[in-house]
Design goal:
The complex is a heterotrimer of chains A (about 200), B (about 130) and C (about 180).
Chain A lengths: L5 H14 L4 H17 L6 H16 L4 E7 L2 E4 H25 L7 H18 L10 H14 L8 H9 L5 H11 L9
Antiparallel strand pairs in A: 1-2
Helix pairs in contact in A: 1-4, 1-8, 2-4, 2-8, 3-4
Chain B lengths: L8 H24 L5 E6 L2 E6 L4 E6 L4 E7 L2 E6 L6 H4 L9 E4 L4 E6 L14
Chain C lengths: L1 H7 L4 H20 L13 H10 L2 H18 L6 H24 L5 H25 L3 H29 L1 H6 L5
The chains are: A mainly alpha (about 200), B alpha+beta (about 130), C mainly alpha (about 180).
Amino acid sequence: MEGRNIPLAAGLLMLPALVFQDALLPLALQVLFLIILQLVIGRKIRFLPNIIMLISITVLNLFQAHGRVLADVIGMQITQGALEIGLRRALMLIGLIYLSRFMVFRKPRFPGRIGRLLSLQFAFYEGFLSRRPSLKPQQIIEHLDKLLMEQEALAEEFETDSRAAREEQQRALLYVLPVILFWALFSVKFLELPF
Amino acid sequence: MRKRKGITAADWAAIVIVALSIALLSMQVYRDTGNDSQVVIEGGGEMWVYSLDTDVHTHIPGPLSETEVIIQDGSVHIPASPCRDKICISMGQISRPGQWIICLPNDVFVRVEGVEAEDREVDDVAF
Amino acid sequence: MMSLSKEQQNIRVTEIALLGAFALFLSTIEMVIPRPLPYMRIGLANLSVMLGLAMLSTREYFLLVLLKILGQGIIHGTLFSYVFLFSLGGSSVSALGMLLLYRCLGRQLSFIGISVSGAFLSNLMQITLARLILFGRSAWLIAPPFLAVGLVTSVILGLFAQQFSIRSRWLAAKTGGAG
């Protein structure tokens, strides 16, 4: 397997351990693990979007009362069941997003003709990004137009770097560790803690 | 055709259709909020709230022991309770707002809250 | 060799990939603009889809939509999450609707109407999926403001797209000036 596809495979192995997690505390641990994994691979984590997502999804789920009433806030009851469901959905989403980012961080190559189309698309995309932005609102259409014409003129076959792929193969074993750790965290749910 | 710079009548039609749909949806959503029947259970100073639409099998703790409460198919009942006379069990299934079941010995009070659709009609006659 | 067979099928690989990349680029710009909520998207990438409407064949158009969905999933790192499902559902319903409207009512509708319809379909689909997966019945509570904002942004986007399609020399070259 190519080096660039290894995180994808590892992530796919980890996916069921996340999706089938129904206990709250192990899920939180797993999400924490995935965040740490992001830092390990060198990605930066922005806390604000996560917190907004966590709060908004949880709050919206609180509207549907379920279970023991914990508090009464501005005429709305905060129930334990609704809180747990909301937290679980929010954490699950955050976890899935970080797992996804992990899976694609080495720009895996997808099979088939779609794969080639995708590669070409990303090549053009990098091309768009590397141009200097022009910030004149009146000429924004002309600017975008120019981008399109320039990129098309540069359209050549983009060859992949096979040397880097061979080096990645030796590091494949490194990816076994997070998979095992992740499944270990998954099995915390069998301890049947209060959460 | 594409060279035309202005907004067309059909464009306006699309915008109006979408705007009307949004308005209709808002009316639907904001009228229905709070009108779904809920099951409120009180016992020992605590309160539990569930939607009548859900399936719930829970145990409410009381001075004697636990009273079972089951919400299923849009109705609530008590299948088992540690009280001596089991009156609460014999009160059967409730499903309409205003109805209630009580187990005094174990301090469990189950009631259905909400607004019946029929209550919005003016023509109801009560005797 | 694969691009050869694509050309034999008359699928213009370069144009599709270019428009797809353009969609990703627009989507990236949109991420940079500060937004009140993570969910509120202006859908700038739809400009690219509408350009595709104007210049691609049906099969090419669907390939573009597929590329856009996959590409966005990859660069935003949401490929294997619920968000991807929302994107998939919203984009496909929207793309299909816009295609039908463009083919049937293309003379009467400008990109404004197409943009508004496409955005409405997409948002509606996304709310439905959100109701099923993320929020439960409460999803409908945020539906009206979400859809209202979508209406406003899609009108603006449609205006922009219409202007772009008129003034773009690139597009003119691709469509042979027929618009």
